[in-house]
Amino acid sequence: MMAKNKEPRPPSYAVSVVGLSGTEKDKGNCGVGKSCLCNRFVRSKADEYYPEHTSVLSTIDFGGRVVNNDHFLYWGDVTQSGEDGIECRIHVIEQTEFIDDQTFLPHRSTNLQPYIKRAAASKLQSAEKLMYICTDQLGLEQDFEQKQMPEGKLNIDGFLLCIDVSQGCNRKFDDQLKFVNNLYIQLSKSKKPIIIAATKCDECVDHYLREVQAFASNKKNLVVVETSARFNVNVETCFTALVQMMDKTRGKPKIIPYLDAYKTQRQLVVTATDKFEKLVQTVRDYHATWKTVSNKLKNHPDYEEYINLEGTKKAKNTFSKHIEQLKQEHIRKRKEEYINALPRALNTLLSNLDEIELLSWSEALKVMEKRPDFQSYFVVLEKIPWDETDHIDKVNDRRIPFDLLSTLEAEKVYQNHVQHLISEKRRVEMKEKFKKTLEKIQFISPGQPWEEVICFVVEDEAFKYITDADSKEVYGRHQREIVEKAKEEFQEMLFEHSELFYDLDLNATPSTDKMSEIHAVLSEEPRYKALQKLAPDRESLLLKHIGFVYHPTKETCLSGQNCMDIKVEELLANSLLQLDHGRSNLYHDSANIDKINLFILGKDGLAQELANEIRTQSTDDEYALDGKIYELDLRPVDAKSPYLLTQLWTSAFKPHGCFCVFNSIESLTFIGECIAKIRAEASQIRRDKYMANLSFTLILANQRDSVSKNLPILRHQGQQLANKLQCPFVDVPAGTYPRKFNEAQIKQALRGVLEAVKHNFDVVSPVPTIKDLSEADLRIVMCAMCGDPFSVDLILSPFLDSHSCSAAQAGQNNSLMLDKIIGEKRRRIQITILSYHSSIGVRKDELVHGYILVYSAKRKASMGMLRAFLSEVQDTIPVQLVAVTDSQADFFENEAIKELMTEGEHIATEITAKFTALYSLSQYHRQTEVFTLFFSDVLEKKNMIESSYMSDSTRESTHTSEDVFPRSPRGGSLDYNYPDSEDDAEGPPPYSPIGDDVRLLPAPSDRSKYRLDLEGNEYPVHSTPINCHDHERNHKVPPPIKPKPLVPRTNVKKLDPNLLKTIEAGIGKNPRRQPSRVTAAPPEDTDPSDNYAEPIDTIYKHKGFADDIYAVPEDSQNRIIKVQNSIVINTQGEEENGFSDRVSKSHGERRPSKYKYKSKTLFSKAKSYYRRTHSDASDDEAFTTSKTKWKGRHRGSEEDPLLSPVETWKGGIDNPAITSDQELDDKKMKKKPHKVKEDKKPKKKTKTFNPPIRRNWESNYFGMPLQDLVTPEKPIPLFVEKCVQFIEDTGLCTEGLYRVSGNKTDQDNIQKQFDQDHNISLESMGVTVNAVAGALKAFFADLPDPLVPYSLHQELLETSKIMDKTERLHELKEIVKKFHPVNYDVFRYIITHLNRVSQQYKTNLMTADNLSICFWPTLMRPDFENRELLSTTKIHQSVIETFIQQCQFFFYNGEIVEAPNPVACQPPPSNPVQMVEPMVPLQLPPPLQPQLIQSQLPADPLGII
């Protein structure tokens, strides 16, 4: 009974478990399950459940403290909580009968009563009796938990009667039931509750169970609970039911049949098992051990639940199975990898079908073992099979175990390999056959889609055999071949037409007219038409060619590594020893520099990386460059350093140059800002000329991860910044390099520093005489065409094979020296070998005594380049033409070679030049004597050439003016400077439209200081005679040959003559003291090639006139006055009558000209281009001088000539040398009035307004009607969406958005790239917001019709005049609804976007008013040539402004908003009375043609100097 204490505690009950017991004879060889039932209830965890409990004990065990000489066991207690939450403690006693293991009779105990009476006892007593756990506890009690029976005595509160319903072991069920019946009778006498537990129901015999139930049904309140201790089914239920019978206050438990309870229990076990298996499956390493995993999982609830239900043993078995599966899976994967790798091994070791086609697998294995690469693919293991060795764990060893090859899978792979080789052989044969079929189809053109060709090959046998992918691959390869061939032929054609690109001005971005002329000429060529389907590629090749023509370098040469400059340098470097002749070298005083101080500027550690790379290439800080050792002192500084300026220039360290390294747009921008700070600091300390002239070199770091997708952008932006800063740009060389910096880059940068040092000395050095310039007596330039089909050593062999050949000055990698007797003395001749593109910059800028022009008689392009170059050479310089071919037999056997050799000889005859041929198979022509006559001719004319050159140099040096740009520190190379718009925050275009270092017009106050030369170029007034006809300067890098005399030079260079004529027309309306002008042009019947000036002895010589070879007249103040295409002499009292008498006598004066006016072949070639592009003009018009056009444009013209289209081509290349023949002038003047009248007739016609064509490429998108670009699903053009999205995502707050113009080249690139791929990402292009905004505006400008229809313009203007604001807005809203639906959707979209832009006006400064000014001409596109429009432009603008401000009202049914104060962002005026009336009509000029827009160069576009 429950003890009653003062403190409440849970009730305690003692339950006695009884059942059949005794000897084996009585109960059989196994018990009825009393012990298992008690074990499962008291210790339910699977690991604590013991299925075996013996009743046969030794005397010692029986007398131990656990049994304690009693025939009952104390199992301990269980605290149980009922459904009502009330806890109770249940003590469990098992009544049994222990058998002596010696006598097999029951042990003698203190209680000698039989089992039936003993089991029914309600009071038990045993002092210090311990709790029983398992059989192993007996005799080892100290190793187990020791818990005593409470107080050594218990009062039994109920009985649990166990009946075994299983088959039993040598026991009759009836005997058991009879024993149970007697036992029940004894138990019932105690008046205690009794419950029958049917045990071992998992092995139940049905009729046994029914008999038990029948037995219980005959008894009062006797309940049967079906249990299974093994599966823990209903064990707890039977004890709970007994407690309920003892304590009626507890809820009565529900007795569940065994099968239902078993299902519930099994479901619980299954769920726990699934969770545990999932837990185990997280282990992926089959090397894991149970100990490690169990320790890791022991606190996991799923793990603990499974251990409690199933036990550690089962958990370990489950884990072991999983580990075995992992291992087998690993072995399977390894085997699969080996089998998959076997074909690759077979392809390498057994690739010859003829060798293995008939071999069996075993024979093939023997062949493989003999291969040298066998060990690379296979491994022979000492132990087999391979999957039972540690080889399965060698993941990094990809070699195949050789014993694996004995499997059927490996043999099958071999058979498939043989079949594959057979089918592949057949496939390759068929692909080649199909390729030949395609080659026979003549109409396949480059760029032709496969779909257009497939119908012609569908019946071809090879086409039927190969797959679609193969056929497309073969066709793609065929297309690549013919496209590549067509592009090469197209490039060759461009070289053949070299005169077309080198003939006129220096505009690196040709005008629309010039491009039309080029296309007109080239369109007649089949090679041009061959790329018709690849028009964008063709245009790209053409623009690339034009870009190279005006900015050529050996790195960008279109011939690549076949560039003549590269080959010459390589050959001379290998053939000549760089000897020290004691002469002053290229760097003048810098030759004495043994130590170079370098300041390295970079961001994010780039400076230190470059310094480390230079030190890696150095030995003890000594660097070898061009045969000389320099000690380097490097100072890398991070661009972010706050001590940048203090570290740059110290008393102990004065840098010779600064390397600026970058690898991103961000770092490039940062570098530009740093250089600006440095130069600004330098401008404040001008006293130090070295600091002021410090040279900078931009170096692009290699992109290791790319590839680069950003490399072209970085290169383009870097070149632009270098152009602005007037400093060298060192690009990443072609090829793949593992490092960020290449040795060639470092050497190129160091040479640039040395050149800058040389320039700094040159600036302060006096003008040297000819003799001081060099020790060479003659300077000869040999020119050859890049990519010509002959070796460089062939044309150099006449010099290199001579014993008198030696190295030139150090650093002149493309020159050599000859010691040769000419005349009576030994002469030193410097031969500089250059490509034609490098030689172009030499023609005027350098002193050259003669040219050797080499061309290949096998290549028309070579002759074309020669003609283009020779045309611009002054006819005072001797020329030697050299044709190169294989042998003399070629002349007679090959008609094309004969034609080119004949043409070359004919040109030489016309210009009185030397001509010879070099034959690769002849040794004679490799001797120096082949040029002896030419050298003699050059020597004879040396004085005349040098006098002409020096007089020209002196003329340039006598006038000094403030530089437009400071000179670049690079001495020998030219500067590229581009005008910057004040509104353009981006870099300039890659090519200047008017040339480099050019001032468009002098200020009005300076006009008196300038005159116009014969070509229409500005030049300073001075008193030195001029001796030659100037040639337009080409922007090429001059070679390291003899420079001009070093004098201060002006940066005001000559303009394109055609451009100047247009500009002069604008300033000629108000001429001040303009002298009379006399034209000087040949009459129609005069051969242009005969128009030359006469020698100076035929002209009246003024007393003060210098004794020179050539001269021009002077005025009374000894000033030479040059006017456009005429010479004007200022004499006192003769200004009204034109030329003075002494000038009229000098009409036969001989002036230097160009060879194109001396050779009919050269001149006619150039003229042929002119006639092809202007076939509607007569010869008379072709030779009309600019005098007529000047007069026609200045006779009271109402149009501003700077804004009107002008036929600038009429003064082009066909102008011959100018004479001063008065008689010819009179004839010409008689013809002019008639032509002027003809020219003015078209101006009287009313022209239909057409917007200027902005694009110069064909497009299937831009310029198309708006309706063709949209669909009902996508009512907004995709390009507009992309641009607006980009702007709103990245640049909505950009200052000056839509006002600041973007880079024109980037705008074109955006549209071109979109033309090719509509899915292109603007973000990936790296373009600026202003460029995208410009491209968006250009889209609307290119539409055939404006977005706001012309038909509604008048209504909009009239409505805008309504005074009442609300009425005006509603009327405008009704007009907008009249828009075409497509126009309406797009107009709403773009106005909504502009409204969002205007909302950010505080940051972007673009109010609705500003935006309307920028956008109204694009959206409405009125006729600007209609002068009536100029009075309504403000109304046009106000219409668009209203739409932007009231966007929500017009398109989204919003409320009318109050317009913001237009001056809200501006400070209030100091005197409000003086405010200007805000409604002054805006006067806009007519639209400009792009080719005529020329901006004034600012003094410093970057604000750096």
Gap between N and C termini, in Å? 111 Å
> What is the makeup of the main sheet?
7 strands, mixed
Major beta sheet, strand line-up: 20-21-22-19-23-24-25
Strand content: 5-15%
Low-confidence stretches: 578-591, 762-773, 959-1149, 1175-1249, 1461-1505
Tell me roughly what share of residues is in helical segments.
40-55%
Choose one word for the global shape: elongated
| Global structural class | alpha/beta
Q: What is the overall pLDDT average?
A: 75
Per DSSP E runs of 2 or more residues, the count of β-strands stands at 29
Total helical elements: 55
Structural Rg: 53 Å
Provide an overview of this structure:
Helix 10 (301-310) packs across helix 11 (312-349) and helix 20 (512-522) packs across helix 41. With 1505 residues, the chain is an alpha/beta fold. A hairpin with a 2-residue loop joins strand 21 (815-822) and strand 22 (825-835). The termini are far apart. The relative contact order is 0.05. The protein has 55 helices and 29 strands.
